[in-house]
Amino acid sequence: MRSSRSTPNRPTSRAIPLLLLLAGEDHPKACTGRRLVHRGAARAVARIDDGPRRPVVLDPHADRPLSVEDVAAARAGGLLAVDCSWNRVASRGGLPEGEGGRLGLRRRLPILVAANPQHYGRVNELNTVEALSAGLFLLGEPERAASLLEGFRGGGGFLALNRERLERYCTAVDAEAVRMAERELFGVGAV
Fold it and tell me: Is pLDDT larger for residue 135 or for residue 85?
């Protein structure tokens, strides 16, 4: 019989690294991204291509929704959020200059409802911690998604508010199935 010291310890899966590109456009005390970095829950990067592999970049302007198809890429390169004002991104026509899809796999989150006090009840106006939490949930780490939200105003209600949607998106086998779930949940013209 083998001792526990000789038994190989093989993890079944690696945790998805969380990465943040901080644009510095928010008030530092209100910035959920900075709080995640401060807590050690995410790593700040200077550019999307800072790591050895291409990350999955959460981009609300991307055509393709995040789905279970992206799990391997996220485990290998991380899940990256750009912590900036999305109103400014929209007016610039995309991510900050030099930060394009060629440097990462651009994915948008499926349609979700914000629970943060600033945008409560608004569709797709999530703050950074909500976006990363949703990404973790959709990529198979629901417990970590819940723990990420702890201590943030409105954080406890985000997963509860979106539970049905998130669970539905998790059952989708690919991006097209996520789009179909969005149409069924939000109406034919929603997507």
Answer: 135
